[in-house]
Queue: 4 jobs
Job 1
Amino acid sequence: MFGLTFEKILLIGIIAVFLLGPDKLPHYAAQLARLVRQLRDMANGAKDRMRDEMGPEFDDLDWKKLDPRQYDPRRIIREALADEDPFKEQSATISRAEPNPEGAYLKRKRAREAALAALEPAPFDTEAT
């Protein structure tokens, strides 16, 4: 938890004994335990409230699927910038020919270049600052 090993926790405890002193240490340890208990109760309360509001769907939900750590930003950007429309309906016919990705790439490149060549340049204002 948080990269704390037994040695680090022991070192923190020894430093706390020297800084707080043996007479105040039990009081602060009790306060820390109370704080941890309150945080745990708050987390459980939030989970119970969410379960009540969502109903039976809460137990059916796959929480690992919603974990933001699983998303790769490079993949998301690559998919967003892809030339193909993911929502475009696919045709019912199946081609028997082998796919030629280089030919498709060149075809898309030529189409982009033709579209850019057809565009007029932006107007230029000589008086603008």
Note: The helical segments are 6-20, 25-54, 57-60, 73-80, 101-118.
Job 2
Amino acid sequence: MQITSYQDLILASYQQHEPQRLLFVFASAELPTGHTEKQQQEFEQGGGGALTPVLCVDKLPSEAEDFAALVEESKQTGISWDIVFISAMDGRGGFAPNSDEASQPLRMMMSKIQSGMISDFLTFDREGDLVELVPG
């Protein structure tokens, strides 16, 4: 199944052989340290910048079916974000992974994002639109 929307992601998660746990890392766009004037201009026009993880959470697909509800829940943290990276974990023996099992994969996701290794993740903006990011 080709995923072209958040709803496709949720549907795909239900179609897997084992139950899934979704991993979310929310990131904020900011200018990198030592940025150039050109980088600042691009950033001010909505492009470029560095993505810094600011919040992470894991959820069962049934807990995250509606992207708008996910955004509303994130607002309660008071933490601003621009992009959310999403991955999934397979369960075992018909059981979805629990939150404790998700903590290490979430840390690994954050580390990969900080290193610019983002190709393994689906990325959505605050409106729930799938975004293709090009590491720079």
Note: DSSP finds four helices and four strands in the chain.
Job 3
Amino acid sequence: MSETTARATGRNWGRFALHYIEMIIAMFAGMFLLDLAWSMAGVHVSYATHPEAAYLLMALNMSIGMAVWMRFRGHGWGSTLEMCAAMFAPAVPLFPLLWLGLIDGHGVMIAAHVAMFPAMLAVMLRRLDEFAGCAR
């Protein structure tokens, strides 16, 4: 896309890519920092014994990290909550496979992590003008 076209549409693809990277960093920061906080508080949920709870807690931790960063960047609640939903949505088709014994807790975690990245990208493409122009 030419610079003239980018100015006409208000879309900045470099900013879009940077925001995607920021979301990944915020997601992992939330996951690691909040997991540490939970551990310090004596809360530990195992993928081996309670895979659903472990996944949901991890998704919550990642969502909090991303939500904090998105709100700091000036994004509204709608796009923030959609991005958080991208952390939980991959589990929907995986939990029944877990319950049927076709996948284990670690398999859920790995498959969900792989699915999160395109889910996050889908949210950003759905709100392309917001993420390519950035709210701030």
Note: The chain has a mean pLDDT of 89.
Job 4
Amino acid sequence: MNLDQFTASLQDKTPPADLNPILTALWHDARGEWAAAHNIAQLKEGTPSYDHLHAYLHRKEGDSFNASYWYRRAGKPTFKGSLKDEWQELVGTYL
């Protein structure tokens, strides 16, 4: 699956069955289902990829203090671009 196919799947009622959990969370996030995405981020706290997802979600929520905490836990710098750019980068990383 590539970014275009992933983006097209956002029109479906459910995420593609073969997505990894982080992509499933990003799928929910793109559809405005923040809580569903956040629930997935919390499944494996302490795992850098999940902590990175968690950071993005709190940044999107507007909670920069909490986002900064999760970026540090993930070992990532705070993303300086747009939320859309960060979402695309995360999707590209985990596809």
Note: The chain has six helices and no strands.
